[in-house]
Amino acid sequence: MKAMILAAGRGTRMRPLTDHTPKPLLVADDRPLIVHHIERLATAGVRKLVINHAHLGEQIEQALGDGHRFGVEIRYSPEETALETGGGIRRALPLLGDDPFLVVNGDVWCDLEPGALRLTPGDLAQLALVDNPLHHPEGDFVLDHGRVRTTGAPRLTFAGIGLYHPALFADQPEGAFRLAPLLRAAMAADRVGGLHHRGRWFDIGTPERLAALDVLLRASH
Does the record carry Nucleotidyltransferase as a key word (predicted)? Predict the structure, then answer.
């Protein structure tokens, strides 16, 4: 299985930290955030990664190289202009191939085992959902006996980690577009599964949350 790490975000809420450093290279527990993802994926047996980038993206390539020292092969999908999540994945499809692939937001940290996500035959996606954090109490979706719905209760938050079939994106024209409308359309057709991850998860959207993650990881030693 291949995996894609989304690393093209500008990280405006993390300023001034991201004025001169791309968000995925910000450090927690002495390692860049994106390295935490790479190490977890490599441990799970994922050997081929695709990373998109835009803002200060050359720093990401310089820091990670071809991935050899992490035991993986990294290919890059540079974006000259912001393509949003859906457009960024669509741009990278030639690098991802014809089989389902894992996508991880570069600005989250999670102890989910990547192999826990599996596509049910006929599905276009399986999403990892977590309990709603304090900064997002309304949640995103509902998990109903393993199926993800847009309405109902109780609601959970999308963890920014999903397993996708390339057919979810293949009919979309190249360019910028959001992922959420594609997922909602697939949910309406009952083609999205999900799991409730009850382990640790951080949305690293502010310097304060980055600092909190750093404290947690250091304490875990």
Answer: yes
50 φ, ψ (degrees, to nearest 5): -120, 135
Closest by Cα among 68, 77, 76, 73 to 48: 73
d(CA 188, CA 123): 12
pLDDT tens-digit profile, the chain (221 residues): 999 999 998 667 777 777 788 889 999 999 999 999 999 999 999 999 999 998 888 999 999 999 999 999 999 999 988 899 999 999 999 999 999 999 999 999 999 999 999 999 999 999 999 999 998 999 999 999 999 999 999 999 999 999 999 999 988 999 999 999 999 999 999 999 999 999 999 999 888 999 999 999 998 87
Alpha carbons 61 and 35: distance in angstroms, whole number: 12
Q: Which residue has the tokens 């050359």?
A: 58
Q: Global pTM?
A: 0.95
For residue 21, what are the contacts with CB-CB under 8 A and spacing of at least 6?
A: 56, 59
Domain 2-220 has CATH 3.90.550.10: yes
